[in-house]
What does this fold into?
Amino acid sequence: MAELEQLGGSSELLQEGSMLPKRPRDDSEMDITPMIDITFLLLIFFLVASKMDDSAKVDLPEARAAAEVNAGEAIDIIVQKGSGDEARVLNFNGDPFTQGDLKKQEEEIAKYIEAGLAGTAPFTSPKKYIVIRAEGEVREGEVHRIMEAIGRATEDRDEDQAISVLYVAVKHVE
It folds into this structure.
C-alpha cells in the first residue's frame, strides 16, 4: 500500500484482488450509438413492411365502355359496402366521413367537394372532376344519395366553375 501511495494512487481506488488502480466512472456522457442503430433498424422495417397505397382498395364493378379521367385532376369519393344497408363513405386518403348521421355525412361531403374544387386542404390544387369509386356490392340507392349530396354541394356554383359531368368509376373489361 505504501508503494501505491508513493506513486500517487490511493488505497480506495484499488480493484479488489488487483494491483491496478480502479478508474473513476464518468457518467456525464451516455453512448447513444446503439439507440440510433435500433431507431434506423425500426425505420427500415416499417418502410419495408408498410403498404404504400394512397387510396383505399375498392372492388369496382365492370363495364365495357368508360371515359378516362386523370386521377390528379379528380376529387375521389370512395364508397364501400358497410354494415347493414348503409354504405361506408371515405375521402381520397381512406378517412371515413361520419357514419350513422346521414345529414352530417352529406355536409362533410359538401365541405370536402368545396375544398377540392377550391384547391384548399387536404388538396394541393383545384380539381376539375368528381369521381365516385363505389364497390360493386354497394346498393345503387347509396350511390345515388351521395350523387345527390354532391349535386346539392355544387348547384350554386358559377357557370364557369360548375361541374357538368360526375364520374362513377368502373373496371374496364374488353
